[in-house]
Write a structure and sequence with these properties.
Elements (H helix, E strand, L loop, with lengths): L13 H10 L13 E7 L2 E8 L3 E6 L15 H4 L3 E6 L16 H16 L3 E6 H13 L4 E7 L16 H8 L1 H11 L2 H11 L8 H11 L4 H10 L7 H6 L4 E6 L8 H9 L4 E5 L6 H4 L1 H21 L8
Parallel strand pairs: 3-4, 3-5, 5-6, 6-7, 7-8
Antiparallel strand pairs: 1-2, 2-4
């Protein structure tokens, strides 16, 4: 999802805002919003938080990248999938309940993490469901190393017509986020204020009633954990953008595109760009939904996803071409 930069605020607010950004920093680290069995792994010295649900053929759920992002994104998907599947929902490095180090966040870092999640957490080839920019990282990984990914469901992925090219240099706002601890914290606190996050959520949901005070507060609290600015700075700078056009042509797994009909930030027109490159992509349009169709219209989304996973299972069992799935 796109997130617009904000201007630097005056110095009078710096101390209070910077302090606020650290005072509540660890408030949600142990707050498991999905239920299930809490677990974690150490990855390159950092904690990666996850939850496990249900039994059956494995499915890995990967949230998108934006301020306040976490596995909460799958709150209406986990109950439906876990009826028939072993589901693992992960908080990516820099987001949710996972560690947020002052690291160099790159597409390569996240693609390596995704590969290791399948190998170390799921421990067998599995279906993967990912949204937004994370879905683009998944396509890049699958195009290069498809061995452990049996099928993919991509929710409004980027990387073909939107958020494809990395920015040539960081903006002034991004440099301050990374290089000036106090001023950077102040800018980040403005980006993640309740007002800003409410407006952001209202732009990605069609139904404003979805944007409850509790949801806004959750996003604020998650976004303002210690180190939250680092991954977001990489996101704002375009350094996490990835061009997946070549990788997409190499994908051989059954793949489903899921898009909200009324998505505003990553509009449904971008789905057609994916299908121009790869004609055999399956495609499901979720009506009356915005950029998070899995949260806004879960019944329709889950029906399409479960149907696809069953077709992909039959395809993998038959050893046939997935062109026959459509």
């Amino acid at each position: 999802m796109r997130w617009r930069n904000t201007a630097v605020v005056g110095g009078a607010a710096i101390g209070a805002a910077a302090l606020y950004g650290t005072a509540s920093a660890r408030e949600l680290v142990d707050d498991d919003v999905l239920g299930g069995e809490s677990d974690e792994i150490r990855w390159r010295g950092h904690r990666i938080a996850l939850t496990r649900h249900g039994e059956g053929r494995p499915v890995l759920l990967l949230h998108g990248m934006y301020p306040g992002a976490s596995s909460l994104e799958w709150r209406h998907v986990v109950p439906a999938l876990s009826e028939r599947h072993s589901v693992v929902a992960v908080d990516l490095l820099g987001f949710g309940r996972s560690d947020r180090p002052a690291a160099r966040y790159t597409p390569g870092l996240y693609q390596a993490l995704l590969g290791d999640l399948v190998a170390r957490v799921v421990r067998e080839p599995c279906a993967v469901v990912a949204s937004g920019l994370t879905a683009a990282q998944l396509v890049a990984l699958a195009g290069r190393d498809p061995r452990h990914i049996t099928s993919m469901a991509l929710v409004a992925p980027t990387g073909v017509a939107y958020m494809r090219d990395p920015a040539p240099s960081a903006s002034g706002t991004t440099r301050l986020l990374l290089g000036a601890p106090i001023v950077g914290n102040t800018i980040y606190n403005r980006l993640t204020s309740p007002t800003r996050l409410r407006r952001h959520l209202e732009s990605i949901y069609v139904d404003d009633h979805m944007v409850t005070p509790a949801l806004v507060q959750h996003y604020v609290r998650v976004a303002r954990q210690l180190g939250g600015k680092h991954a977001v700075a990489a996101l704002l700078s375009g350094k996490l953008n990835v061009d997946v056009r070549t990788a997409l042509r190499r994908v051989r797994q059954p793949t489903l595109l899921l898009w909200g009909e009324l998505a505003r930030q990553n509009s449904v027109e971008h789905a057609h760009a994916f299908r121009v490159i790869k004609h055999d992509l399956e495609w499901s349009l979720v009506k009356d939904a915005g950029d998070l169709p899995h949260d806004e219209r879960p019944d329709e989304f889950n029906a399409a996803l479960r149907s696809f996973l069953e077709r992909a299972r039959r395809w993998s069992g038959s050893g046939g071409s997935h062109l026959a799935m459509a």
